């Protein structure tokens, strides 16, 4: 599975899909403070989108404080560890809403969506308990809203 994928059928604009993915990768700990991000041109080519789309994503991420651009060096992850507004909890809530929206768009009921997500969670737990790698490359992250929802490795 590619790190960045665009869903052409999503109601979210491509630039927002990419921005949301970056926010998740940063807040979940995949990208660490000071990690260098892919170049704008490189990511545009990898994902198959226009250079200006990725440039818009990076500009928005920088404006929101997730990244810092350094002239002639690239874009780097900002330190977001002390920000309570940048939590895995907030990101996961957005993903859950997007999941529900898509389920409803394909004709599922809320009960259908709930059964499906519970089934998937059970499969992931069973795989994890059996020492198998999680399906789809899922990495479990624990977080505590009392601690601003910051992720901690484990699970």
UniProtKB/TrEMBL annotation:
PROSITE patterns: HTH_GNTR. InterPro entries: Tscrpt_reg_HTH_GntR, WH-like_DNA-bd_sf, WH_DNA-bd_sf. GO terms for molecular function: DNA binding; DNA-binding transcription factor activity. SUPFAM superfamilies: Winged helix' DNA-binding domain. It comes from the Bacteria. Residues 12-80 form the HTH gntR-type domain. Keywords: DNA-binding, Transcription, Transcription regulation. This is GntR family transcriptional regulator. The lineage of its organism: Bacteria, Bacillati, Actinomycetota, Coriobacteriia, Eggerthellales.
């Amino acid at each position: 599975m590619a790190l960045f994928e665009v869903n052409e059928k999503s109601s979210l604009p491509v630039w927002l899909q990419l921005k949301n993915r970056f926010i998740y990768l940063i807040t979940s700990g995949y990208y660490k403070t000071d990690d260098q991000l892919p170049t704008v041109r490189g990511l545009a080519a990898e994902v198959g989108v226009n250079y200006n789309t990725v440039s818009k994503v990076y500009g928005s991420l920088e404006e929101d404080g997730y990244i810092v651009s350094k002239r002639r060096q690239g874009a780097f992850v900002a330190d977001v560890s002390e920000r309570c507004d940048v939590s895995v909890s907030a990101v996961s809530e957005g993903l859950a809403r997007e999941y529900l929206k898509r389920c409803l768009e394909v004709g599922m009921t809320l009960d259908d969506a709930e059964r499906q997500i519970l089934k998937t969670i059970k499969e992931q737990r069973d795989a994890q308990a059996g020492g198998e790698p999680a399906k789809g490359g899922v990495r479990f992250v624990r977080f505590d809203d009392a601690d601003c929802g910051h992720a901690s490795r484990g699970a």
